[in-house]
Input
Amino acid sequence: MTPTDQSRQRDYYKATAATYQERHVADQDEHGLALELLVMLARYYGVAESFLDVGAGTGRAMKALSLAFPQARVQGIEPVAELRQQAELMNGISGEDLREGDALQLPFADNSIDWVVETGVLHHIRDWRRAVAEMVRVARYGVLISDTNNIGQGSPRTKTLKKLIKKLGLWNLFVWLQTKGKMSKWSEGDGLYYSFCAFDALPLLRLKFEQVQLMNTQGSGDPDLLGSVSHVAIVVSRQKTASTAP
Output
């Protein structure tokens, strides 16, 4: 993310912090469903002592994880002070648990947190690969990515065309032409964002984690998730061994 892009995005959240939760959070939205998947898997595997939410916003994920696992240490990072303030006011999350931080340089040691999560953050980060690499580095047991799938957005014809462009290796060129070289886009509902496909993160995630769970989090009966769903949850984890057991 260029300095101009970063400042535009953060200014957007500063200006909308007071209404952020109302505009971006619903209990049964795609990220709420993704968090339920993570809670289920953490209970199933019996690993739930610590969680880190990257780009925590007003703390929705932190609150959900704290309620599900009262004994766990749930932490978050969020670069925008106004959102951190709202997290304390609206969700009772302390500054000790939610602190300033950068997704590209997480202030945590390798393998220090059981689960590292992000919900709708990566499509706001130009260098999302570095952010995912940081999540993988810090995570001891697994990672949740709940985010957009640009290939699965649009009409059936548009989705087919996108899949073809992607298959030919021309996606970045397509976006460069579409955005006139900026690579970023803007909407009043989401601020500055990038064309992001959550499935592209899988190769990085699989460098460390063997087990992969995929979930369609926003309506489609088509088994082809890449070409049909606009949002997806990806949970990766490692086999439970003596070194990963709590």
Notes: The mean pLDDT is 92. The CA atoms of residues 19 and 86 lie 9 Å apart. The radius of gyration is 17 Å. The first strand starts at residue 50 and ends at 54.
